[in-house]
């Protein structure tokens, strides 16, 4: 009985110290409620491994860790939208200006808005956006093939609330020969975080841009080009962090 009495006092003192000063593992002066002191310290949670958690897809992947409304650690984060195999850019949501025509203008660049969507948040947030956008290249809106051998650049990106900053940049180059046209559907694919600066409803617009080879260094005019976006199976996913 005497030994049990001393053990009770020892445990009571330990928990009282832990409540006021924190617990240190390999650390004699804990600075938080739990302080791992070794330089190679880490935390392992069996409930988050690939055998116990449906959102852990195995050894070849790593995942962001989230905190739910109860304060529990989780791998799950709700997605606001995921086309998930369906065509994300269709006649129902595509902007009228998805045909971009560049025909000898002064700077050799033309752009258009492809589509837009809105997100509503109650706080400043990060919006993760992933997309795969299709397009075809022609000389004009009549879909005549390109044979002039000049290179074209096809760029896609996002804007927030019609601002100047461009997110999710990605580009492809298109060239043809003077005898054989290059045809078929091409894709731009990218992902990026967009900073949502404040609570409220915000508009994200997807833009397409084309630029072409120059007739000469002096003339600095664009070659006739037409890009038509949304001609294939497009995908879009976005979620708030």
Task: Describe the SSE topology.
Elements: H1 2-21, E1 23-25, E2 34-36, E3 66-67, E4 73-74, E5 81-82, E6 99-102, E7 109-121, E8 125-138, E9 152-160, E10 167-174, E11 186-196, E12 200-212, E13 225-229, E14 235-240
Parallel strand pairs: 1-2
Antiparallel strand pairs: 3-4, 5-14, 6-13, 7-12, 8-11, 8-13, 8-14, 9-10, 9-12
Keywords: Signal
Signal peptide: 1-18
Overview of the structural elements:
This protein has 241 residues and is mainly beta. The protein has 2 domains: 2-74, no CATH class; 81-240, Sandwich (Jelly Rolls). 8% of the residues lie in helices and 39% in strands. The chain has 1 helix and 14 strands. It has one helix at 2-21; strands at 23-25, 34-36, 66-67, 73-74, 81-82, 99-102, 109-121, 125-138, 152-160, 167-174, 186-196, 200-212, 225-229, 235-240. Strands 5, 6, 8, 11, 13 and 14 form a 6-stranded antiparallel sheet that branches. Strands 7-12-9-10 form a 4-stranded antiparallel sheet, with no helix packed on it. A two-stranded parallel ribbon has the order 1-2. Strand 3 and strand 4 form a beta hairpin. The longest helix is centred in the first third of the chain and has 20 residues, at 2-21. The model has no long low-confidence stretch (mean pLDDT 83).
């Amino acid at each position: 009985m005497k030994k049990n009495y001393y053990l009770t006092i020892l445990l009571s003192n330990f928990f009282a110290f832990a409540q006021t000063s924190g617990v240190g593992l390999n650390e004699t002066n804990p600075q938080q409620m739990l302080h791992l002191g070794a330089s190679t310290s880490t935390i392992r949670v069996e409930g988050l491994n690939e055998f116990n958690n449906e959102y852990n897809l195995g050894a070849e992947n790593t995942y962001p860790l989230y905190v739910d409304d109860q304060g529990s650690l989780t791998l799950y984060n709700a997605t606001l939208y995921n086309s998930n195999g369906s065509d994300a850019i269709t006649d129902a949501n595509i902007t009228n200006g998805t045909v971009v025509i560049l025909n000898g203008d002064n700077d050799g660049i033309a752009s258009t808005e492809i589509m837009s969507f809105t997100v509503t948040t109650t706080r400043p947030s990060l919006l993760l956006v992933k997309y795969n956008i299709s397009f075809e290249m022609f000389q004009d809106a009549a879909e005549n093939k390109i044979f002039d051998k000049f290179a074209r650049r096809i760029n896609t990106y996002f804007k927030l609330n019609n601002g100047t900053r461009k997110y999710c940049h990605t580009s492809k180059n298109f060239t043809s020969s003077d005898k054989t046209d290059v045809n078929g559907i091409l894709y731009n694919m990218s992902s990026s975080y967009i900073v949502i600066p404040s609570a409220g409803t915000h508009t994200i617009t997807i833009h397409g841009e084309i630029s072409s080879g120059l007739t000469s260094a002096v003339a600095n005019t664009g070659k006739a080009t037409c890009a038509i976006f949304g001609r294939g199976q497009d995908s879009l996913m976005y979620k708030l962090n």
